[in-house]
Amino acid sequence: MWTIHVSSTFVTNLTQAEKSVTISLVVPCILSLNSHLRRAANTVKHCQQIINNLTLSLKKRFRGIFVRVGMESQDVPCDNLPFNENIYFTAAIVDPIFNLRWISVDVTASSDVRDSVHQELTGKNIFTLLFKFNYAMYIFSNVSL
User: CA 136 → CA 64, 72, 86, 93, distances in Å?
Assistant: First the structure.
């Protein structure tokens, strides 16, 4: 149970940084935390209910990510799901720390689904997404807080 607390605390602290870009951390961290919870569910003898509730809560809060990568079924239009916006996926792809490695490591769908996710994210629309992402970063960097 301690490892779950440490993992969730690490992800929380990482994504709440004030002096660094954190949007690229959203998708990889959420999927990594889900993988960690899955492994804990298979190894921890006690606290199974807590692990199950944390997993359900994570999947509910970030449903758009899980649907987009093929790990959850889509029962409502994708546009209405939280964290389904292209910016989260594009930011993870253009971040040299992550690129597309998180797909092969933390996406637990079948290899066909992983391949189609990879294809969708790197398809011909990637240039449009990169332009929008770079423009948004330019606008954000010029905003005085």
Answer: 21, 29, 12, 15
Alpha helices, DSSP H only, in 23-69?
26-43, 48-61, 63-68
Single-letter amino acid, residue 3: T
CA–CA separation, 41 vs 48, rounded Å? Answer: 6
d(CA 67, CA 113): 11
Domain range summary for the chain, segments of one domain joined by + = 2-141
Rounded CA-CA distance 4/95 in Å is 26
What pTM did the predictor assign? 0.69
Rounded-to-integer distance, Cα 7 and Cα 113, Å: 27
Residue-wise pLDDT for 32-82, tens only, equals: 999 989 888 888 888 889 889 999 999 999 999 998 888 887 776 666 788
